[in-house]
Structure formats: structure tokens, C-alpha cells
């Protein structure tokens, strides 16, 4: 299943994913086509396959269809000028996609607890033509514990969490804007994606979407 959307470039991969119903929004497809996945993997041989790949440190770059699901779920909040927090930013791939959606007046904060991955993601984004966006603080990549969020830049219109939390971290709900939306895998042995919405009055609701298997949102191993 995962392999049938393979292409020889990001544009071809995304077009194939659209044909198979794995990307449905033209806005998301356009943003994903601007990001060359080969710049965010260790071995580019399989860059344009719809499958996760190891990026070292027990981490993986998620499969493109998961990046597409997450982005499509958050899309109503990813307007030009919006602020986005990507927790467990790993390769930096999704930060690039979010950047193309919120544009130069928006800001994307990538938060990752492995400092080596933070440095690598900055190199990846630079290679992908986003050096100026980093210089201009349109994209900020920081090392830190995602469970605490990044209060300095809060509130966020959208929060994406790329690793599974045992329960919904209160700090992250607090850092959501009103209105705002978070896409987060929750669970240990069995995990599901939750969509957490904060309305314009600050009321919070959550909805379970579908089962997944993510790496855990954990303490850093020393
Ligand atoms: N979304 C990214 C990476 C997904 S893998 C991509 O597609 O490239 C999950 C990432 O979460 C890993 O890089 C891992 O190091 C990170 N992570 C795990 N626990 C964390 C924590 N407490 N704080 C921040 N990042 C964490």
C-alpha cells in the first residue's frame, strides 16, 4: 500500500498520492510539492516513497501520507500569517510544509529534544532553499522538551505533535490560541490521533480520529 505512490520526485510522489486519495487538498499538495523530501532523509534512494525512514537517534521521518493527513487536519488554521508549533520536528520536513502555507508573515517553531537533529534539520531546511526564512525567523528550530511546549512564542494557531504522549499535555493546551487546533497522537501500547480544538471563547474539545503507531514523546536518553 505505502509503496504504490512512489515517484521519481516530490512532485510526482504527491501527484500519485493525490490520485490514490492520500492527499486531497490542492493547497496541501502545492505546499508539499515545494518541499524536496530528498533534503530531509539520510539516504535519498527511497526519498520519494510513501514510507517512513530512519533519521538516526531512534527517530524516523514520517511517511508522506501521515504528513499530508496532519497538514490537512490543521489546514483551516494554517492561514497566511498564522503561528505554528511543530513538536518532535525531527528532519524539519513538516516545518517546511507549514512555512509554505503560513507564508512569510507567519512563523513556524520546530521543537525537538535531540540537539543533533535540530542542527541537522536546520541544514536540511537550508539545503531546501529556506535559509532566508530561518535567518528572518519565519522558521525557528529549537532544542527542548516538547511536553513543555515553547511558551515564548505562544499562543499558536496550530500545534502538531509528531511523537505519542501518554496523555494530553496541559502545557500544550494552554499554548493553543482561541481559536486553535492541535493534532496529537496519544497513547502508549495503543495510540490514536486526537484533534484538540479550542474555540474563540477558550472552550476545549477533543475528538479521537484514527489509530496510529508513533515513537513516544519521551525523556531524552543520556
Ligand atoms: N515529524 C518529524 C519526526 C518524527 S519522529 C519528521 O517527520 O521528520 C518523532 C520525533 O520526536 C523524534 O525526532 C524525537 O526525537 C522527537 N521527540 C521525542 N520525544 C520528544 C520530546 N519530549 N520533546 C521533543 N521532541 C521529542
UniProtKB/TrEMBL annotation:
Gene3D superfamilies: Vaccinia Virus protein VP39 (3.40.50.150). It catalyses: [protein]-L-isoaspartate + S-adenosyl-L-methionine = [protein]-L-isoaspartate alpha-methyl ester + S-adenosyl-L-homocysteine. Pfam families: PCMT. It is found in: Cytoplasm. SUPFAM superfamilies: S-adenosyl-L-methionine-dependent methyltransferases. Its EC number is 2.1.1.77. InterPro entries: PCMT, SAM-dependent_MTases_sf. Keywords: Cytoplasm, Methyltransferase, S-adenosyl-L-methionine, Transferase. It is an enzyme of class 2 (transferase). NCBIfam families: pimt (TIGR00080). Belongs to the methyltransferase superfamily. L-isoaspartyl/D-aspartyl protein methyltransferase family. This is Protein-L-isoaspartate O-methyltransferase. It comes from Somion occarium.
Amino acid at each position: 500500500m505505502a509503496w504504490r505512490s512512489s515517484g521519481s520526485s516530490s512532485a510526482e510522489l504527491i501527484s500519485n498520492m493525490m490520485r490514490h486519495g492520500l492527499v486531497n487538498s490542492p493547497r496541501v499538495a502545492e505546499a508539499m510539492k515545494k518541499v524536496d523530501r530528498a533534503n530531509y532523509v539520510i539516504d535519498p534512494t527511497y526519498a520519494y516513497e510513501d514510507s517512513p525512514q530512519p533519521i538516526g537517534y531512534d527517530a524516523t521521518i514520517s511517511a508522506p501520507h501521515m504528513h499530508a493527513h496532519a497538514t490537512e487536519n490543521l489546514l483551516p488554521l494554517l492561514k497566511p500569517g498564522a503561528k505554528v508549533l511543530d513538536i518532535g520536528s525531527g528532519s524539519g520536513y513538516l516545518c517546511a510544509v507549514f512555512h509554505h502555507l503560513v507564508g512569510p508573515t507567519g512563523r513556524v517553531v520546530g521543537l525537538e529534544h535531540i540537539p543533533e537533529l535540530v542542527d541537522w534539520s536546520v541544514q536540511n531546511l537550508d539545503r531546501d532553499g529556506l535559509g532566508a526564512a530561518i535567518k528572518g525567523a519565519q522558521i525557528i528550530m529549537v532544542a527542548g522538551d516538547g511536553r513543555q511546549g515553547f511558551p515564548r512564542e505562544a499562543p499558536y494557531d496550530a500545534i502538531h505533535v509528531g511523537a505519542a504522549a501518554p496523555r494530553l499535555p496541559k502545557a500544550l493546551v494552554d499554548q493553543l490560541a482561541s481559536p486553535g487546533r492541535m493534532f496529537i497522537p496519544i497513547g502508549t501500547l495503543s495510540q490514536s490521533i486526537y484533534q484538540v480544538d479550542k474555540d474563540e471563547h477558550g472552550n476545549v474539545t477533543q475528538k479521537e480520529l484514527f489509530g496510529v503507531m508513533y515513537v513516544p514523546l519521551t525523556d531524552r536518553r543520556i
